[in-house]
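Recap from last week: sequence in, structure out.
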Amino acid sequence: MQTHLFLFFYCYICVSLFFIEGAEITTYDEFSTLLSIKSSLIDPMNHLKDWQPPSNATRWQSQLHCNWTGIGCNSKGFVESFELYNMNVSGIVSNQIQSLSSLSYFNISCNNFASTLPKSLSNLTSLKSFDVSQNYFTGSFPTSFGRAAELRSINASSNDFSGLLPEDIGNATFLESLDFRGNYFVSPIPKSFKNLQNLKFLGLSGNNFTGKIPEYLGELSSLETLIMGYNEFEGEIPAEFGNMTNLQYLDLAVGTLSGHVPEKLGELKNLKVLELWKNSLEGSLPLNLGRNSPLQWLDVSSNSLSGEIPPGLCTTGNLTKLILFNNSFSGPIPSGLSNCSSLVRVRIQNNLISGTIPVGFGNLQSLQRLELAKNNLTGQIPIDVTSSTSLSFIDVSWNHLESSLPSEILSIPTLQTFIASHNSFGGTIPDDFQGCPSLSVLDLSNANISGPIPESIASCQKLVNLNFRNNHLTGGIPKSITNMPTLSVLDLSNNSLTGRIPENFGSSPALETMNLSYNKLEGPVPSNGILLTMNPNDFIGNAGLCGGILPPCSHSLTATSHKRSSHIGHIVIAPSMIGSNITTKIGLGGMGGAGIVYKAEIHKPQITVAVKKLWRSSTDIENGGNDWLLEKSTLKRKVTSNFTIFFSRGYSGRFKLNIDLELLDLQQH
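Predicted structure tokens:
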């Protein structure tokens, strides 16, 4: 019944249009047009459920459609706005939309349209704002938008449009915002764009533009934001960009631009954001950059820039992000940066910066990240850094820093990551871990530190990665480390640690990787938990360690051998599976210096064997397999007359170690 009523009323309106005169004709027409448009849409969420004719034709009101979802009318009942923003709508934009002759605001952004746009859209000469962004529209962008004399904004970003940008857009001289980011448009950029003297925003990033950036864009005197990154532009940045005196935001990141950064960019008095990262730019930054503008964000990382960091970057006190990493900047860190209270991030790692770390960074209450790694910094970490209440990430690794670490450095309440490896600090590890509620990564490897590992380190209950490798640490491994609830990676290798491995390591709650190699540890390796699955190389270089996954300790070797000789007649040494004869893994029999020993049954003949899967490290590969062969010959010498040893031909993991089958018959006589 409802369907018949809808069709009746729709036909009634169409016929009535031939007979009714005056203003009612237009409102009926637009009412009908909207119903036609709806018939081309897919509305799975039923947002447009109120787009229906009245239940009785005699109750028609001229502005009924003006109350429908997404529809707005002017005082005469003409449709002025069509806004279906973020309604999960798809389908086709009907050609009938051109009949809405008073339409000024059209917005169907953030939906699922995947069709082409009708060319008839260009007949909407009353348009002021057109937004089809964040859909999947394909094909070319409609031409003749230049006929809309009052058009102020076009947003077609984040679609799949392709081809050329329409030349006639340059005729829409009142345009203030033009956004074509995130499509597949190709060069050239229309020369007519230089006519858009009221344009404030131009977004062309994330397309397939190539060649040189047009110099005539520098004639857009009203432009405030220019975003052209993520294209394939090449050549130099046009010096004419320095003429855009109102420019606040310039983004040319991720391309193949080369040459120098124009000195005139440093003279722009309104510049707030400059993003030039990941290009092939060289030379120095403009000396006056930031000195006369409210610069907030500077990112020129991953280029080939050199020279000193401009001293006036924070003259106006607005700089929040300074990102200069992966360049060849030299000279000192400007002292003005350590007094820049607005800074949130300082990332100047992997340059040639020299001198000392300026005093003052610890007093910057907004500073969260301080990344100075891989430079030529000397001196010490300023003591004032320990008074920070905001730093969460500090990386000063791969420098030439000396002196001891500030004792309170690890007690910064917000600190999550502290990396100071590959320096020449000297001194000991600070014994003040009581105030490290957030610390998750601590890397002091290759830092020339000595002395014991503090027991208080276990107070860092969120620590995940702890790396003290290649230092001069002495004393034992604190038992408290074994109870750390989140510790996943522990590296204490290449030190002078003594004593035994704590028994509880095997049951550490989160431990996944541990390297204790090249110390002076002794005694049995605990045989529980994760310690049963570790690579023996993680214990190498400790002459006093034995047992567990290492060769048996001397006092238990005789008893262990006697026990095994009464139950097992063969030992099979195999880099991989030795064949289909092994059918059942009964259990873990033990571990040896080069592999894990399993107990298995062989059907033919009916015997029980010990299967040893040999480890083969990368070091052994480099040595031509000598460690593996040594293990093989050692077992031959140690074997008693109660064993048969099979050395099978096979593969050891991905190293493909081939060993010919040998049989040494030493069975009982």
